[in-house]
Amino acid sequence: VQVKIPFGNKYLDAIFSVPETKPTYGVIVTHGAGGDMNFPHLVSLAACLASHGVLCLRFTCKGLNVAYRTKAFKTVVEYLKLSDDYKLSGVFLAGRSMGSRAAASVIRQLSQDDDDDDGFIQGLVCLSYPLHRPKLQSKLRDEDLLLIRCPVLFVSGSADEMCDKKLLEDVVSKIKAPKKIHWIDKANHGMAVKGRTMDDVMEEINAQVFSWLRENVELEHK
């Protein structure tokens, strides 16, 4: 289902992948610095989630400024929260590369506004989190991550030139919330692995994301 979400004096293009059964939970996902909501990884993940009963809303926000992307993401979260079509118990925020930085930033901001901390946001999924610029490992983009209080999943390539394995493990060890890293062996920032098809890699990523969502939603209900 294609929708246009009002954002300031513009609109954000978005697509709902709707499960056949009435969904209780949703995932909002956005793309990296290049590309848009039709980036193959996002389309593949949305289809997988919807087939397992999870609503997925993916949206396009062009703009290379993280603050701007964060504002757009926040608008989409509000839109879904107030939607009459889908009454959800909670959502997970997800993003690829720069999109995951925006997702992390939204969660940190909302958790600091105490009025907003109503449990609607259940967790964060970071696909290829860009922890640093290539070859610039002294400057880490970890400020939002360290303040997050909800469960977080990282799926990263062990050969990601923007996310050194040891540096991410160090940062994640300092996160106080429940957290998990799944390394895609030998994958680069774009999740390409020599000798594996992209479909094969995507299957591994999608399976990880879905099983992690399921674990966390079950935890919520015990």
CATH topology: Rossmann fold
Unreliable stretches covering 5 or more consecutive residues: none
What is the second-level CATH architecture?
3-Layer(aba) Sandwich
Helix proportion range? 25-40%
User: How much is the average pLDDT?
Assistant: 92
Q: What is the beta-strand fraction? A: 15-25%
Order of SSEs, N→C? EEEHEHEHEEHEH
What do we call the CATH homologous superfamily? Alpha/Beta hydrolase fold, catalytic domain
SS elements, strand count? 8
The termini sit apart by 33 Å
Q: Shape from CA axes?
A: globular
Question: What is the tally of helical segments?
Answer: 5
Can you offer a commentary on this structure?
- Pfam families: Abhydrolase_11.
- The protein has helices at residues 40-51, 66-81, 98-112, 165-174, 198-221; strands at residues 2-7, 10-17, 25-30, 55-59, 90-96, 121-127, 152-157, 179-184.
- It is of the alpha/beta class and 222 residues long.
- It has one domain (2-219): Rossmann fold (3-Layer(aba) Sandwich), CATH 3.40.50.
- The protein has an eight-stranded mixed sheet, with helices on both faces.
- Helix 3 links the parallel strand 5 and strand 6.
- The chain is globular, with a radius of gyration of 16 Å.
- It starts with a strand and ends with a helix.
